[in-house]
Amino acid sequence: MSLSDTIAAIATAISPQQGSVGIVRLSGDRAEAIARQIFYAGGKQVWESHRILYGYIKNPLTKATIDESLLLLMKAPRSFTREDVVEFHCHGGIIAVQQVLNLCLEQGARLAETGEFSLRAFLNGRIDLTQAESINDLVGAKSAQAAQSAIASLRGKLAHALKYLRNKCLNVLTEIEARIDFEDDLPPLDVEWIMTEIGIVVQESQQILATADRGELLRTGLKVAIVGRPNVGKSSLLNAWSRSDRAIVTDLPGTTRDVVDSQLVVGGIPIQVLDTAGIRETEDVVEKIGVERSRQAAQSADLVLMVIDASVGWIEKDTEIYNIVSDRPLILVINKIDVALASKIHLPQENGRRCKSIPIVKTTASQNIGIEDLEATILKCIQQDAIMAANLDVAINQRQKACLLRVVQSLDNVKMAITDQLPLDFWTIDLRSAISAIGEITGEEVTESVLDQIFSRFCIGK
């Protein structure tokens, strides 16, 4: 990859016969020159930065018109990449935008690599690494809350907090190294001040670390498996919850033969709901495969909803299913309360005592009763696990978490060195390690391999 190249890519999602507008983006020193070779603006339109031109894209050799288009020119450094950027706003679909892209490549542009526009923005100082990662989070956001978290990070909230912590560490390092080099010319080192400053950085790092689980939840969502015996109302619960007919509902046992999933958002959290086949012994080969997949889904789920039929009560088959899922986070859903009293259901026993710690929700899925209580209970379970306990708008990812854990560990080592009265050189070793770890998060100290790993997850047009 070379920053001297002019790169091109399709910057919008394209589908056959769908999409009203498709954008082809150019970035680099020759972006405007390439655009002038293929774009013909009518009248006396002036090619100025941040001005939209109207015209036609034509093959410069055959003069054949490829598309009617708008052109937006953004001269460096007033662009996303801080390079000259040109965008062709074409008609949507596959054919038009692909032909425009091909023309750009024929005139000397190079097809952009994944995430290369954002990488150039980072390398040219337009954004830091946390902001670059938030762009990808925003594109892939599965809920409004995930999008808001990404926007907060894109606007620099996480970067500002980290730069504040890094500057504190740098100030402490400066004071220590000054005493190493000019001990006789300076007053004694204020060890109490150093311990206080390090304590502040550790405390605020831990506050940011508390957002890691929340960030993972917002990005990947919560996987919820609905399990239970056949005909207890699992599919009815999924349909009521998703407000759709995703699952077939009949009075015949074994109707659901495979795992049916639905994507929901509850309290800003994306949730993948898995309606599983009723768990029972069966000789039906297809149903047996579905039952095995149900067991696997239950074991891989973040949360299990075990549905009980209130009209039948708790029976031995329920105990068998409970034993399968009891090691998972669990909510008991007592369904069909319109035909029976849920209070008559005897809960499972463990060590001779009733499992009072298991949350219970009462529903009549066929009548959409109890769905709000179910969502409230799920959110309560999430909050009890401290997943939503963070007080920041932003939420760090796993790479950032690993770096911050190194920061805390390194600064703990500094405090131990001070307590053990080790020489000042020992203090600086771990202090530099903490500074480096923060720099890896923001991109001030980062290797090419890390950049490749991060930007390889982007789409080509970003």
Structural description of this entry:
By secondary structure, the protein is an alpha/beta fold. It is built from 15 helices and 15 strands. The protein has helices at 31-38, 95-106, 116-123, 129-139, 144-154, 157-181, 191-209, 212-220, 234-242, 285-300, 316-325, 371-384, 398-419, 424-442, 448-455; strands at 7-10, 21-27, 39-41, 51-58, 65-74, 85-91, 110-111, 222-228, 260-266, 269-275, 303-309, 330-335, 349-350, 353-354, 360-362. Strand 4 and strand 5 form a beta hairpin. Helix 4 (129-139) packs antiparallel against helix 5, helix 6 (157-181) runs antiparallel to helix 7 and helix 6 packs antiparallel against helix 14 (424-442). It is flat and about 80 Å long.
Structural class given helices, strands, pairing?
alpha/beta
Order of helices and strands: EEHEEEEHEHHHHHHEHEEHEHEEEEHHHH
Cα shape: flat
**Annotation field: number of helices:** 15
Separation of termini? 16 Å
Low-confidence spans: 246-258, 280-287, 386-392
Tell me the β content.
15-25%
Number of strands: 15
The whole-number mean of residue pLDDT values reads: 82
Our Rg estimate from Cα atoms comes to 29 Å
Biggest β-sheet: strands ordered side by side in the sheet: 3-4-5-6-2-1-7
Q: Largest sheet at a glance?
A: 7 strands, mixed
User: What level of helicity do the residues show?
Assistant: 40-55%
